[in-house]
Amino acid sequence: MIGQGYLPLPVHPWQWQHYIRHHYAALLATEQLIYLGPVGDEYLPQVSLRTLSNHDRPGALHIKLPITILNTSCFRGIPGDFIHCGPELSAWMASLCAKDAELQQRGTAVMEEIAGVHVPQVLHNQLDASPYRYKEMLGATWRQSPASHCKAGERHMLMAALLQCDESGKSIASALIEESGIRPEQWLSELFTAVMVPLYHLLCAYGVGLVAHAQNLTVMLAQHRPKRVLLKDFQGDLRVLDSGVAERAGLPASADVVKRLPSNYLIHDLYTGHCVTVLRFLSAQLAKEGVIAELDFYRQLAKVLRDYQGRHPGLAPVFAELNLFAAKIERVCINRVRLKEGYGDSAQRPVPIVDGFVDNPLYLADCHLKADSETTLKEVSI
Known about the structure:
13 helices, 4-stranded mixed beta sheet
Protein backbone atom coordinates (compact mmCIF):
# COMPACT_ATOMS: atom_id res chain seq x y z
CA MET A 1 0.00 0.00 0.00
CA ILE A 2 2.87 2.36 0.73
CA GLY A 3 4.06 1.84 -2.84
CA GLN A 4 0.56 2.84 -4.02
CA GLY A 5 0.87 6.35 -2.57
CA TYR A 6 -0.16 5.64 1.03
CA LEU A 7 1.85 6.60 4.11
CA PRO A 8 1.67 4.81 7.48
CA LEU A 9 0.12 6.98 10.19
CA PRO A 10 -0.12 5.73 13.78
CA VAL A 11 -3.30 6.54 15.71
CA HIS A 12 -3.81 6.24 19.43
CA PRO A 13 -6.49 3.57 20.06
CA TRP A 14 -8.48 5.92 22.32
CA GLN A 15 -8.39 8.62 19.66
CA TRP A 16 -9.55 6.17 16.99
CA GLN A 17 -12.45 4.97 19.08
CA HIS A 18 -13.69 8.38 20.22
CA TYR A 19 -12.86 10.74 17.34
CA ILE A 20 -11.27 9.43 14.15
CA ARG A 21 -13.77 6.79 13.07
CA HIS A 22 -16.59 9.34 13.38
CA HIS A 23 -15.04 12.60 12.18
CA TYR A 24 -13.06 11.03 9.34
CA ALA A 25 -15.81 8.67 8.15
CA ALA A 26 -15.86 10.25 4.68
CA LEU A 27 -12.13 9.69 4.13
CA LEU A 28 -12.44 6.15 5.46
CA ALA A 29 -15.40 5.42 3.18
CA THR A 30 -13.48 6.55 0.09
CA GLU A 31 -10.33 4.74 1.29
CA GLN A 32 -8.29 7.92 1.39
CA LEU A 33 -7.71 6.61 4.91
CA ILE A 34 -7.52 2.87 5.51
CA TYR A 35 -7.72 1.47 9.02
CA LEU A 36 -5.24 -1.38 9.52
CA GLY A 37 -5.90 -2.18 13.17
CA PRO A 38 -3.13 -2.95 15.67
CA VAL A 39 0.17 -3.56 13.87
CA GLY A 40 3.90 -3.27 14.51
CA ASP A 41 5.90 -2.82 17.71
CA GLU A 42 4.41 -2.36 21.15
CA TYR A 43 4.58 1.12 22.67
CA LEU A 44 4.36 2.51 26.20
CA PRO A 45 2.87 5.93 27.03
CA GLN A 46 5.03 8.48 28.80
CA VAL A 47 3.68 10.70 31.57
CA SER A 48 2.27 13.09 28.97
CA LEU A 49 0.04 10.19 27.78
CA ARG A 50 0.35 11.00 24.07
CA THR A 51 4.09 10.57 23.60
CA LEU A 52 4.85 6.88 23.19
CA SER A 53 8.14 5.00 23.65
CA ASN A 54 8.95 1.91 21.62
CA HIS A 55 8.87 -0.99 24.09
CA ASP A 56 10.38 -3.54 21.71
CA ARG A 57 13.19 -1.29 20.45
CA PRO A 58 14.03 1.43 23.02
CA GLY A 59 16.40 3.16 20.62
CA ALA A 60 13.70 3.57 17.97
CA LEU A 61 11.87 6.84 17.39
CA HIS A 62 9.30 8.14 19.84
CA ILE A 63 5.85 8.93 18.49
CA LYS A 64 3.72 11.88 19.59
CA LEU A 65 0.01 11.55 18.83
CA PRO A 66 -3.11 13.66 19.36
CA ILE A 67 -5.42 12.66 22.19
CA THR A 68 -8.36 15.04 22.31
CA ILE A 69 -8.64 15.23 26.08
CA LEU A 70 -8.63 18.35 28.23
CA ASN A 71 -5.34 18.21 30.13
CA THR A 72 -4.38 21.23 32.25
CA SER A 73 -5.84 24.12 30.23
CA CYS A 74 -6.31 22.83 26.66
CA PHE A 75 -7.20 19.88 24.47
CA ARG A 76 -4.12 17.90 23.48
CA GLY A 77 -4.11 17.78 19.72
CA ILE A 78 -1.38 18.34 17.16
CA PRO A 79 -1.79 21.66 15.29
CA GLY A 80 -0.86 21.69 11.64
CA ASP A 81 0.94 25.05 11.87
CA PHE A 82 4.33 23.67 12.89
CA ILE A 83 4.40 20.35 11.03
CA HIS A 84 6.20 21.76 7.99
CA CYS A 85 9.04 23.32 10.00
CA GLY A 86 9.44 20.87 12.89
CA PRO A 87 12.37 18.81 11.53
CA GLU A 88 14.26 21.83 10.22
CA LEU A 89 13.69 23.76 13.46
CA SER A 90 14.92 20.93 15.66
CA ALA A 91 17.94 20.41 13.38
CA TRP A 92 18.79 24.09 13.81
CA MET A 93 18.52 23.74 17.59
CA ALA A 94 20.81 20.71 17.44
CA SER A 95 23.34 22.70 15.42
CA LEU A 96 23.36 25.47 18.05
CA CYS A 97 24.07 22.91 20.76
CA ALA A 98 26.84 21.34 18.68
CA LYS A 99 28.76 24.53 17.82
CA ASP A 100 28.29 26.73 20.91
CA ALA A 101 31.14 26.41 23.43
CA GLU A 102 28.95 26.80 26.53
CA LEU A 103 26.40 24.26 25.32
CA GLN A 104 29.15 21.89 24.20
CA GLN A 105 30.69 22.03 27.66
CA ARG A 106 27.31 21.28 29.23
CA GLY A 107 26.74 18.37 26.83
CA THR A 108 23.36 19.80 25.82
CA ALA A 109 21.67 17.94 22.96
CA VAL A 110 18.36 17.78 21.11
CA MET A 111 16.01 14.87 20.52
CA GLU A 112 15.49 15.84 16.91
CA GLU A 113 12.13 15.64 15.20
CA ILE A 114 12.51 13.48 12.12
CA ALA A 115 9.10 13.80 10.46
CA GLY A 116 5.55 14.94 10.99
CA VAL A 117 2.10 14.45 9.48
CA HIS A 118 -1.10 16.43 9.92
CA VAL A 119 -4.44 15.36 8.42
CA PRO A 120 -7.08 18.11 8.72
CA GLN A 121 -10.76 17.38 9.12
CA VAL A 122 -11.93 18.87 5.84
CA LEU A 123 -15.17 20.52 6.97
CA HIS A 124 -13.89 21.91 10.28
CA ASN A 125 -10.79 23.19 8.54
CA GLN A 126 -12.95 25.41 6.31
CA LEU A 127 -14.57 27.18 9.26
CA ASP A 128 -12.56 29.83 11.09
CA ALA A 129 -14.89 29.67 14.10
CA SER A 130 -14.76 25.88 14.40
CA PRO A 131 -13.34 24.71 17.77
CA TYR A 132 -9.59 24.23 17.59
CA ARG A 133 -9.77 20.71 18.99
CA TYR A 134 -11.51 19.51 15.81
CA LYS A 135 -8.63 20.85 13.72
CA GLU A 136 -5.94 18.95 15.64
CA MET A 137 -7.40 15.42 15.80
CA LEU A 138 -5.23 13.41 13.41
CA GLY A 139 -1.48 13.57 12.94
CA ALA A 140 1.82 12.39 14.34
CA THR A 141 5.39 13.48 14.92
CA TRP A 142 8.41 11.20 15.10
CA ARG A 143 11.42 12.20 17.19
CA GLN A 144 14.62 10.65 18.44
CA SER A 145 14.53 8.67 21.66
CA PRO A 146 16.79 9.47 24.62
CA ALA A 147 18.10 5.90 24.49
CA SER A 148 19.67 6.71 21.13
CA HIS A 149 21.60 9.59 22.80
CA CYS A 150 22.92 7.65 25.80
CA LYS A 151 26.69 7.55 26.20
CA ALA A 152 28.53 4.78 28.05
CA GLY A 153 27.48 4.77 31.70
CA GLU A 154 24.51 7.11 31.19
CA ARG A 155 20.82 6.54 31.75
CA HIS A 156 17.98 8.88 30.92
CA MET A 157 15.09 10.15 33.01
CA LEU A 158 12.33 12.65 32.35
CA MET A 159 12.72 15.56 34.73
CA ALA A 160 9.11 14.99 35.76
CA ALA A 161 10.20 11.68 37.27
CA LEU A 162 12.32 13.45 39.89
CA LEU A 163 9.14 14.46 41.71
CA GLN A 164 7.62 10.99 41.87
CA CYS A 165 7.42 9.51 45.38
CA ASP A 166 7.15 6.01 46.79
CA GLU A 167 4.65 4.95 49.44
CA SER A 168 6.83 6.37 52.21
CA GLY A 169 6.93 9.80 50.55
CA LYS A 170 10.53 9.54 49.36
CA SER A 171 11.08 11.15 45.97
CA ILE A 172 13.25 9.86 43.15
CA ALA A 173 15.29 13.07 43.41
CA SER A 174 15.99 12.36 47.08
CA ALA A 175 16.92 8.75 46.30
CA LEU A 176 19.33 9.84 43.55
CA ILE A 177 21.00 12.35 45.87
CA GLU A 178 21.40 9.67 48.51
CA GLU A 179 22.76 7.08 46.07
CA SER A 180 25.18 9.56 44.49
CA GLY A 181 27.11 9.88 47.75
CA ILE A 182 27.53 13.65 47.40
CA ARG A 183 25.97 16.51 49.34
CA PRO A 184 22.53 17.75 48.22
CA GLU A 185 24.02 21.17 47.45
CA GLN A 186 26.53 19.65 45.04
CA TRP A 187 23.94 17.42 43.39
CA LEU A 188 21.59 20.35 42.84
CA SER A 189 24.42 22.51 41.55
CA GLU A 190 25.13 19.84 38.94
CA LEU A 191 21.42 19.63 38.05
CA PHE A 192 21.12 23.41 37.60
CA THR A 193 24.35 23.55 35.59
CA ALA A 194 23.11 20.78 33.30
CA VAL A 195 19.57 22.11 32.83
CA MET A 196 19.03 25.74 33.80
CA VAL A 197 22.25 27.14 32.37
CA PRO A 198 21.59 25.85 28.81
CA LEU A 199 18.02 27.16 28.92
CA TYR A 200 19.16 30.62 30.01
CA HIS A 201 22.10 30.62 27.59
CA LEU A 202 19.91 29.79 24.60
CA LEU A 203 17.72 32.74 25.51
CA CYS A 204 20.51 35.23 26.16
CA ALA A 205 22.90 34.24 23.37
CA TYR A 206 20.44 33.28 20.62
CA GLY A 207 17.09 34.75 21.62
CA VAL A 208 15.50 31.30 21.86
CA GLY A 209 12.94 30.87 24.62
CA LEU A 210 11.67 27.41 25.55
CA VAL A 211 8.66 26.49 27.67
CA ALA A 212 10.79 23.98 29.54
CA HIS A 213 8.33 22.09 31.69
CA ALA A 214 9.30 18.74 33.17
CA GLN A 215 7.94 16.68 30.26
CA ASN A 216 10.10 18.52 27.73
CA LEU A 217 13.37 17.90 29.58
CA THR A 218 15.25 14.62 29.78
CA VAL A 219 18.06 14.50 32.33
CA MET A 220 21.01 12.26 31.53
CA LEU A 221 22.46 10.67 34.66
CA ALA A 222 25.76 8.92 35.37
CA GLN A 223 26.43 7.34 38.76
CA HIS A 224 23.13 8.87 39.91
CA ARG A 225 24.39 12.41 39.18
CA PRO A 226 22.92 14.84 36.59
CA LYS A 227 25.31 15.26 33.68
CA ARG A 228 23.42 16.94 30.85
CA VAL A 229 20.00 17.60 29.37
CA LEU A 230 18.18 16.64 26.19
CA LEU A 231 15.71 19.17 24.78
CA LYS A 232 12.62 18.40 22.71
CA ASP A 233 9.16 19.51 21.55
CA PHE A 234 9.61 22.85 19.82
CA GLN A 235 6.15 22.91 18.20
CA GLY A 236 4.52 25.85 19.95
CA ASP A 237 6.84 25.62 22.98
CA LEU A 238 9.63 27.58 21.28
CA ARG A 239 9.49 31.34 20.78
CA VAL A 240 12.18 33.84 19.83
CA LEU A 241 13.02 37.41 20.74
CA ASP A 242 11.64 40.03 18.41
CA SER A 243 15.08 41.67 18.22
CA GLY A 244 16.17 39.47 15.31
CA VAL A 245 19.01 37.73 17.17
CA ALA A 246 17.62 34.26 16.37
CA GLU A 247 17.35 35.11 12.68
CA ARG A 248 20.99 36.28 12.71
CA ALA A 249 21.90 32.93 14.29
CA GLY A 250 20.37 31.10 11.32
CA LEU A 251 16.77 30.47 12.35
CA PRO A 252 15.27 28.60 9.37
CA ALA A 253 13.04 30.60 7.06
CA SER A 254 10.47 27.81 7.37
CA ALA A 255 10.03 28.76 11.02
CA ASP A 256 7.98 31.81 10.07
CA VAL A 257 5.13 30.58 12.30
CA VAL A 258 7.31 30.79 15.42
CA LYS A 259 6.17 33.67 17.62
CA ARG A 260 8.42 36.73 17.94
CA LEU A 261 8.00 38.25 21.40
CA PRO A 262 9.63 40.98 23.51
CA SER A 263 12.14 40.13 26.22
CA ASN A 264 9.72 40.41 29.16
CA TYR A 265 7.54 37.69 27.63
CA LEU A 266 10.39 35.27 27.05
CA ILE A 267 12.01 35.66 30.46
CA HIS A 268 8.57 35.06 31.93
CA ASP A 269 8.29 31.89 29.82
CA LEU A 270 11.47 30.65 31.49
CA TYR A 271 10.18 31.57 34.95
CA THR A 272 6.79 30.00 34.45
CA GLY A 273 7.73 27.07 32.23
CA HIS A 274 10.61 25.86 34.37
CA CYS A 275 11.06 27.67 37.69
CA VAL A 276 7.38 27.76 38.64
CA THR A 277 6.11 24.49 37.17
CA VAL A 278 9.20 22.37 37.97
CA LEU A 279 11.61 23.84 40.51
CA ARG A 280 8.90 25.19 42.80
CA PHE A 281 7.63 21.66 43.40
CA LEU A 282 11.09 20.08 43.53
CA SER A 283 12.31 22.55 46.15
CA ALA A 284 9.18 22.02 48.27
CA GLN A 285 9.46 18.22 48.04
CA LEU A 286 13.12 18.14 49.04
CA ALA A 287 12.41 20.51 51.92
CA LYS A 288 9.53 18.30 53.05
CA GLU A 289 11.86 15.29 53.11
CA GLY A 290 14.48 17.23 55.07
CA VAL A 291 17.03 17.01 52.26
CA ILE A 292 17.63 20.75 51.87
CA ALA A 293 15.85 23.95 52.92
CA GLU A 294 14.10 25.87 50.15
CA LEU A 295 16.28 28.95 50.63
CA ASP A 296 19.43 26.84 50.30
CA PHE A 297 17.94 25.20 47.19
CA TYR A 298 17.57 28.59 45.51
CA ARG A 299 20.94 29.79 46.79
CA GLN A 300 22.51 26.99 44.77
CA LEU A 301 20.49 28.01 41.71
CA ALA A 302 21.42 31.68 42.13
CA LYS A 303 25.10 30.81 42.51
CA VAL A 304 25.10 28.64 39.38
CA LEU A 305 23.43 31.41 37.37
CA ARG A 306 25.76 34.12 38.70
CA ASP A 307 28.77 31.92 37.87
CA TYR A 308 27.38 31.50 34.35
CA GLN A 309 26.96 35.25 33.97
CA GLY A 310 30.54 35.74 35.16
CA ARG A 311 31.77 33.50 32.33
CA HIS A 312 30.06 35.68 29.73
CA PRO A 313 30.77 39.37 30.51
CA GLY A 314 30.00 40.27 26.91
CA LEU A 315 26.35 39.38 27.50
CA ALA A 316 25.99 41.73 30.49
CA PRO A 317 23.51 44.07 28.70
CA VAL A 318 21.40 41.05 27.75
CA PHE A 319 21.44 39.75 31.33
CA ALA A 320 20.14 43.13 32.49
CA GLU A 321 17.30 42.95 29.97
CA LEU A 322 16.55 39.27 30.61
CA ASN A 323 16.76 39.59 34.37
CA LEU A 324 16.13 36.41 36.37
CA PHE A 325 16.74 38.20 39.65
CA ALA A 326 13.87 40.70 39.72
CA ALA A 327 12.30 41.12 43.16
CA LYS A 328 8.81 40.27 41.86
CA ILE A 329 7.53 38.11 39.02
CA GLU A 330 4.12 38.03 37.38
CA ARG A 331 1.81 35.29 38.57
CA VAL A 332 0.36 33.01 35.88
CA CYS A 333 -2.90 31.31 36.90
CA ILE A 334 -3.11 28.12 34.84
CA ASN A 335 -5.81 26.56 37.00
CA ARG A 336 -7.93 29.67 36.61
CA VAL A 337 -7.89 29.19 32.82
CA ARG A 338 -9.13 25.64 33.31
CA LEU A 339 -11.91 26.75 35.64
CA LYS A 340 -12.93 29.65 33.40
CA GLU A 341 -12.91 27.80 30.07
CA GLY A 342 -13.79 24.33 31.36
CA TYR A 343 -14.83 22.02 28.55
CA GLY A 344 -16.19 24.86 26.47
CA ASP A 345 -15.19 25.16 22.82
CA SER A 346 -13.23 28.03 21.32
CA ALA A 347 -11.60 28.65 17.96
CA GLN A 348 -8.20 29.29 19.56
CA ARG A 349 -6.33 27.66 22.41
CA PRO A 350 -6.90 29.57 25.65
CA VAL A 351 -4.07 31.79 26.87
CA PRO A 352 -2.85 31.88 30.49
CA ILE A 353 -4.33 34.43 32.85
CA VAL A 354 -1.80 36.76 34.51
CA ASP A 355 -2.89 38.29 37.80
CA GLY A 356 -0.62 40.25 40.12
CA PHE A 357 2.91 39.54 41.29
CA VAL A 358 4.64 37.11 43.62
CA ASP A 359 8.01 37.22 45.36
CA ASN A 360 10.90 35.82 43.34
CA PRO A 361 12.83 33.26 45.43
CA LEU A 362 15.89 33.79 43.21
CA TYR A 363 15.99 37.44 44.25
CA LEU A 364 15.87 36.51 47.93
CA ALA A 365 18.53 33.83 47.47
CA ASP A 366 20.76 36.24 45.54
CA CYS A 367 20.47 38.79 48.35
CA HIS A 368 21.64 36.15 50.81
CA LEU A 369 24.57 35.24 48.55
CA LYS A 370 25.64 38.87 48.38
CA ALA A 371 25.33 39.21 52.16
CA ASP A 372 27.46 36.09 52.63
CA SER A 373 30.07 37.48 50.24
CA GLU A 374 30.21 40.81 52.08
CA THR A 375 30.56 39.03 55.42
CA THR A 376 33.43 36.94 54.06
CA LEU A 377 35.18 40.06 52.76
CA LYS A 378 34.84 41.75 56.14
CA GLU A 379 36.26 38.70 57.90
CA VAL A 380 39.22 38.61 55.51
CA SER A 381 39.92 42.32 55.97
CA ILE A 382 39.80 41.96 59.76
